[in-house]
Design goal:
CATH architecture: Orthogonal Bundle
CATH class: Mainly Alpha
Order of helices and strands: HEEHHH
Strand content: under 5%
CATH topology: Fic-like fold
Distance between the termini: 24 Å
Strand order of the largest sheet: 1-2
Low-confidence stretches: none
Mean pLDDT: 78
Radius of gyration: 14 Å
Number of strands: 2
Shape: globular
Structural class: mainly alpha
Length: 111
């Protein structure tokens, strides 16, 4: 199940980047990142570790029942945690933070 969740998450994130953020400006932006990069003082996951870390993160999210039963006072801190972790992965060359913001905003609007 985690492999399926990982594939679905990457498809959703890639679609957001491609169709809503930078795909029309820079189609190369949605190619999976194969090089190490930094965003100013922020270091992001090495490309070789993205799949392993995403799999672990999605397994954790599954263990938390996709936050369905998380108490409201804990929900924001859990979303913030997932936002930070997903943004750290940075699987694409461009649009990762903006796409992750949209995914987390959607989760917030559902709560």
């Amino acid at each position: 199940m985690t492999g399926q969740m990982m594939a679905v998450y990457l498809v959703i994130l890639k679609s957001i980047v491609l169709h809503y953020l930078v795909g029309d400006i820079d189609p190369f932006a949605v190619h999976y990142r194969r090089e190490s990069i930094d965003k100013g003082p922020t270091i992001v996951e090495n490309p070789a570790g993205i799949a392993r870390r995403l799999k672990k993160l999605l397994a954790q999210l599954k263990d938390e029942s996709v936050l369905k039963h998380t108490a409201e006072q804990n929900f924001l801190s859990r979303i913030a945690n997932y936002f930070a972790e997903l943004n750290y992965l940075h699987p694409f060359r461009e649009g990762n933070g903006r796409a992750t913001t949209r995914v987390c905003s959607s989760a917030l609007s559902c709560k």
